[in-house]
Write a structure and sequence with these properties.
Order of helices and strands: HHHHHHHHHEHEEHEEEEH
Shape: globular
Structural class: alpha/beta
Number of domains: 2
CATH class of the largest domain: Alpha Beta
Strand content: 5-15%
CATH topology of the largest domain: Rossmann fold
CATH architecture of the largest domain: 3-Layer(aba) Sandwich
Distance between the termini: 62 Å
Number of strands: 7
Largest sheet: 5 strands, parallel
Strand order of the largest sheet: 2-1-3-4-5
Helix content: 40-55%
Length: 272
């Protein structure tokens, strides 16, 4: 077989996949479509998980990686992880990034974030797992109390969910970890935890989710990668990613998903 050189960066990887897609057999073309649409998921998912989502055999995933030029799946995964885990710039550097785009006037910046938000929402609309969303709402609707945890960038989402549940007269507890008080003992049988965390993940949120899992409580997880750092058969993952501008990420899609969860839960509870 002809020696194919592997891509050295994400631009080369995407270009190679796009260039080969039309020539690939059906199953490998399914792999190509999945990789192009859900690149970030590759960083934290196993071959078995990818094959299930792409609706192909694991051997097709491995073959696809080889056609692209990699020795195997792990080599492709390393490239994707490297692109994701490159050091994020600090906020001074991020502001400089905005200037590098050209026009850094308030109006131009607003326009860019509006566009990033639009793309994020369109992506969410096209990729949301309907079965997982339905299961999450049914799980929340049957809860005695809904516990919500999200820190750092996820904190506005957690706060907004807690506010929405309050207005919908749904019992909830917002966990914040202030003073190292996590309110873990507030979780009881019949309760549900909503854990909101994005890579590289909040250790406090992971700790609370692991405790909920030990107690056998259902967990609805909002995150930007499908392979979560806590494992439980009762976890319902809802994956949402945001398009960034100048290394800044808004929460347009995440907040839309969150309020959809709250309103749908309120509607279902009212019918019971």
């Amino acid at each position: 077989m002809e020696d194919v050189q592997p891509p050295e960066n994400m631009e080369e990887l995407n270009a190679k996949i796009m260039g080969l897609r039309a020539t690939l057999p059906k199953r490998l073309r399914q792999c190509a479509d999945y990789f192009l649409q859900s690149t970030n998921e590759i960083a934290f998912s196993t071959v078995a998980e990818i094959s299930e989502r792409a609706n192909v055999q694991p051997s097709a995933v491995m073959r696809f990686c080889q056609v692209i030029g990699f020795a195997g799946y792990s080599d492709m995964q390393k490239l994707v992880r490297h692109s994701m885990h490159t050091k994020m710039p600090d906020y001074n550097e991020r502001i400089q990034n905005l200037r590098d785009f050209g026009d850094d006037s308030p109006t131009a910046i607003l326009a860019e974030f509006v566009e990033a938000g639009r793309q994020s929402l369109e992506q969410l609309s096209g990729t949301v797992n309907e079965a997982a969303l339905e299961k999450a709402v049914q799980t929340l609707a049957g809860a005695q109390v809904i516990h919500v945890m999200g820190l750092r960038r996820a904190h506005p989402v957690a706060s907004y969910l807690s506010y929405a549940f309050e207005k919908l007269h749904i019992p909830s507890v917002l966990h914040g970890g202030s003073g190292r008080l996590t309110h873990t003992e507030a979780m009881r049988d019949g309760d549900v935890l909503i854990a909101i965390t994005f890579a590289p993940y909040s250790p406090e949120t992971i700790e609370l989710a692991e405790e909920a899992a030990r107690r056998g409580l259902p967990i609805v997880a909002l995150s930007d990668t499908p392979s979560l750092p806590f494992k439980s058969k009762s976890v319902v993952p809802l994956i949402v990613s945001e398009i960034d501008f100048g290394a800044f990420r808004s929460l347009s899609a995440t907040l839309s998903l969150a309020i959809s969860l709250a309103v749908a839960t309120g509607a279902l509870r009212s019918r019971k």
